[in-house]
């Protein structure tokens, strides 16, 4: 069970929050402002995502490779950022873990995490391949090195939407009566099979030389 969210831990913002096409590459910045508890040396900040997501993996070593992520602070401490696939608890298991060391942070100091930093050649971080109305980054803070990170009050979400139209799926009856109209169900899909609305003005025509065969009962 998640802990009750605490406004005294600090607050965070996410930019941008515009719709993200499935499997596209982008850059997202989470800025955490330290709350009245501060952040001691040995404290942690975590940015967790649900285990069912297939977002790209953040990495902190190769600025030219995809997923490059940076974490900086304006406070009097150093940061160490890592990726841990079991960094928190279900369902928010995978997490970016940021350790504070060689100093501490005071109320009002910030930690800025840029996921998919393209400033040195990376093409960004890949979004998940399936549509979701409110994908969430869960931000947690452990200000006192208690090994007990608590969710902050802010809920950081953004919508993931279908990518470009790739396929038009049509479903129609396997049997019909001669000279009677049939209904055709149509569904647009992107390359990942996310549904896309299609126009009501579609026109269908018969292609091929197949003929109807009539058989006596």
Structural description of this entry:
With 217 residues, this protein is mainly β. The protein contains no helices and 16 strands. Strands 2, 5, 7, 8, 11, 12 and 13 form a seven-stranded mixed beta sheet that branches. Strand 15 (185-189) and strand 16 (195-196) form a beta hairpin.
Using brief descriptors, characterize the structure shown.
four-stranded antiparallel beta sheet, 40% strand, mainly beta, seven-stranded mixed beta sheet, 217 residues, 0% helix
Which SSEs are present, and which pair or pack?
Blueprint: E1 10-15, E2 20-21, E3 25-26, E4 28-34, E5 44-49, E6 69-73, E7 76-84, E8 94-104, E9 110-115, E10 125-126, E11 132-142, E12 150-151, E13 156-161, E14 167-171, E15 185-189, E16 195-196
Parallel strand pairs: 2-13
Antiparallel strand pairs: 1-4, 3-10, 4-9, 5-8, 5-11, 6-9, 7-8, 11-12, 11-13, 14-15, 15-16
Q: Tell me, briefly, the overall form.
A: elongated
Element-level helix/strand string: EEEEEEEEEEEEEEEE
Mean pLDDT: 91
- Give the beta-strand count: 16
Unreliable residue stretches: none
Short description:
With 217 residues, the chain is mostly beta strands.
């Amino acid at each position: 069970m998640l802990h009750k969210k605490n406004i005294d831990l600090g607050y965070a913002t996410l930019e941008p929050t515009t719709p993200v096409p499935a499997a596209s590459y982008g850059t997202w910045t989470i800025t955490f402002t330290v709350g009245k508890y501060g952040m001691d040396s040995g404290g942690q900040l975590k940015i967790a995502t649900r285990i069912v997501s297939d977002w790209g993996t953040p990495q902190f070593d190769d600025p030219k490779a995809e997923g490059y992520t940076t974490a900086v602070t304006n406070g009097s401490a150093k940061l160490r950022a890592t990726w841990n696939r079991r960094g928190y608890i279900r369902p928010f298991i995978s997490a970016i873990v940021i350790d504070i060391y060689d100093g501490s942070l005071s109320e009002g100091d910030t930690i800025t995490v840029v996921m998919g930093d393209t400033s040195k050649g990376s093409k960004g971080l890949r979004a998940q391949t399936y549509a979701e109305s409110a994908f969430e980054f869960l931000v947690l803070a452990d200000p006192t090195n208690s090994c007990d990170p608590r969710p902050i009050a802010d809920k950081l979400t953004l919508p993931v939407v279908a990518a470009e139209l790739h396929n038009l799926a049509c479903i129609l009856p396997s049997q019909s009566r001669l000279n009677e109209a049939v209904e055709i169900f149509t569904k647009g899909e992107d390359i990942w099979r996310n549904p896309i609305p299609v126009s009501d003005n579609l026109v269908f025509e018969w292609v091929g030389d197949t003929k109807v065969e009539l058989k006596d009962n």
